[in-house]
């Protein structure tokens, strides 16, 4: 058993190094290709996608096939392969709407699951050159330096950002949106994966979102918990549904939960 565990940990470490190398390559590619105006198409759900989204995911899959050919992958743009013990989850551009307008807060999100548990994660914001990462039970890092969530414990002093109000309206949870804003000090604006990165390194204190896809937040869940934070899904399972989800520094988690549960119950 110990030999098997040591082998698995070694395999996870190898993939963590791969993840860091690859996400930096992909970030460099995106920064180079970010030329405006940009041609886009609309997907079935009316969300935009650019050729850079698709090419980024293709590059990731090519590199994965080279180094870890038996691993599976689930991507936002190109779907899922047959599931294996090691499964990668990638959002090649989180924040495509901002990317196509030249707003420099889009990012790349990559997570690795081992038997459905996230064990490796990385987020890159190409415009800043920063990379946030984590390995299960090994801590969270920004550019190789250990990070921790904020120490704010009073929700009235907290910076909490939310998804756009229209998404709460679509699921009849506008009161949740309004009450979170009424209780917190400031909303710095939702910046997709960059907001999750800022939560992990302590610059903001909470995020309340809804209608999340797993590829949007898989990496963030590990980085956040390794940095000392907490998250909860309205699904009450280990994957989100179309409901309200919340992510915090842990210190305000119970208060955020009480606000949400009072409204959504």
Automatic annotation (TrEMBL):
The keyword Transmembrane does not apply. It holds the Pfam family Inositol_P. Keywords: Hydrolase, Magnesium, Metal-binding. Mg(2+) 1 binds at residues 76, 91, 94, 216. GO terms for biological process: inositol metabolic process; phosphatidylinositol phosphate biosynthetic process; signal transduction. This is Inositol monophosphatase. The keyword Magnesium applies. One of its GO terms (molecular function) is metal ion binding. Gene3D superfamilies: 3.40.190.80, Fructose-1,6-Bisphosphatase, subunit A, domain 1. Belongs to the inositol monophosphatase superfamily. Mg(2+) 2 binds at residue 93. It comes from the Bacteria. Its cofactor is Mg(2+). It comes from Winslowiella iniecta.
């Amino acid at each position: 058993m110990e030999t098997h565990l040591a082998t698995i940990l070694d395999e996870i470490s190898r993939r963590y190094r791969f993840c860091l190398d690859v996400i930096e390559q992909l970030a460099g590619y995106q920064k180079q290709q970010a030329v405006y105006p940009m041609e886009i198409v609309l997907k079935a759900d009316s969300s935009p996608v650019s050729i850079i989204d698709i090419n980024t995911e293709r590059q990731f899959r090519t590199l994965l096939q080279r180094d870890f050919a038996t691993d599976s992958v689930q991507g936002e743009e190109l779907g899922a392969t047959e599931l294996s013990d090691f499964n990668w989850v990638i959002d090649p551009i989180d924040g495509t709407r901002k990317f196509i307008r030249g707003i420099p807060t889009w990012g790349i999100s990559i997570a690795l699951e081992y038997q459905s548990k996230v064990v490796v994660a990385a987020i890159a914001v190409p415009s800043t050159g920063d990379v946030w990462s984590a390995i299960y039970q090994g801590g969270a890092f920004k550019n190789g330096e250990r990070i921790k969530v904020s120490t704010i414990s009073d929700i009235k002093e907290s910076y909490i950002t939310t998804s756009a109000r229209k998404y709460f309206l679509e699921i009849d949870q506008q009161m949740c949106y309004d009450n979170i804003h009424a209780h917190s000090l400031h909303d710095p604006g939702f910046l997709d994966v960059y907001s999750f990165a800022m939560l992990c390194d302590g610059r903001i204190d909470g995020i309340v979102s809804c209608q999340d896809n797993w590829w949007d937040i898989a990496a963030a869940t590990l980085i956040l918990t390794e940095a000392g934070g907490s998250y909860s899904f309205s699904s009450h399972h280990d994957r989100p549904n179309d409901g309200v989800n919340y992510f915090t520094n842990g210190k305000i988690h119970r208060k955020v939960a009480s606000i949400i549960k009072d409204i959504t119950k």
